[in-house]
Amino acid sequence: MKPFAYESARDTETAVRLIAARSAAKFLAGGTNLVDLMREEIEQPDLVVDVRGLPTAAIAASPGGGLTIGAAATNTAVANDRFVRERYPLIAQAILSGASGQIRNMATVGGNLLQRTRCAYFYDRASSCNKRVPRSGCDALDGFNRYHAILGASEHCIAVHPSDLCVALAALDTTVRAVGPNGERTVPFEDVHRLPGDMPHVETTLGADELITAVEIAPLECARRSVYRKIRDRSSYAFALVSVAAVLETSDGVVTTVRLALGGVAHKPWRAVRAEQVLLGAPATNDTFDRAAQAELAGATGRRHNAFKIELAKRAIVDVLAELAGSGGAR
Ligand SMILES: Cc1cc2nc3c(=O)[nH]c(=O)nc-3n(C[C@H](O)[C@H](O)[C@H](O)COP(=O)(O)OP(=O)(O)OC[C@H]3O[C@@H](n4cnc5c(N)ncnc54)[C@H](O)[C@@H]3O)c2cc1C
Q: Which residues, listed in sequence order, are joined to residue 27 by a DSSP beta bridge?
């Protein structure tokens, strides 16, 4: 590991000022991703600014029934929060499907949003990776790409975003609050993470000197009945092959509200807008769910090891929607 300086910030202004003063500085939260990357010398900050002591760990109901989660809240605290479990169970399910108890105790919401891909070629410094070294190539394209993207990928990068929590947040109307040298701003969640295009090393629209302080989730009464389903190679301690976060409300057998997002399929948490368009106002039947899944995956591209994920994603969508509609198993 390269030598680095350490500072602990007690207020957000100090944290931002310390980061802005150095070009290679990084915020440090639970360290469960950043420290691993520093050990591998993939991340090489000359300064880390510890943000765990900031007063940004509160989890609070907001007026009208929404939810504000502070960026320094641990994943465990969020998953255990009573309001979260009652009003947004998909958030708790998503968190509890990830990592291990010990890691969730350390990991924070801010760090979870900005964790980096688990692509093996990104971690292996002997491999070519446009994300790690811009314009060096992508060994995943013709390599072992079982876990890689089927939607929104480019010839420069087929890595996926690894977070489970982010998939649940993508399905809800979420905004991210961030503070930087130019003050505070809010960013719609769908605009935070980027598709790879020809710049896969630029993963978000946030500046390196912008501190996430909170995520704000709009009220959504019907999210009380919501599901996060994660399909993976083993039932614990594994990243998603495909995951689905869904909220579904019906009236007289017709879909009146739907929120759908996919994980494990793209460089960013994937809001399934095409599927939602098919579903809204349509009968809540398996036939509709199937048409919605087909529409969403119509633009998917499979590679040597991951083509199976296209059918897997379709079936997962149908299965989750059928469960929420109470119409039984999908197939
Ligand atoms: C073995 C293992 C298994 C895992 N399995 C899963 C899984 O199945 N599902 C899943 O979702 N995750 C999984 N994770 C990832 C884990 O959830 C993340 O490592 C964790 O959420 C990152 O949070 P952190 O607080 O430790 O962030 P850090 O490691 O401290 O930081 C991560 C990044 O976020 C930045 N950052 C942190 N806080 C802020 C902030 N407030 N504002 C701006 N930037 C910030 C840091 O600069 C850094 O770039 C796993 C991790 C491990 C080690």
A: 49
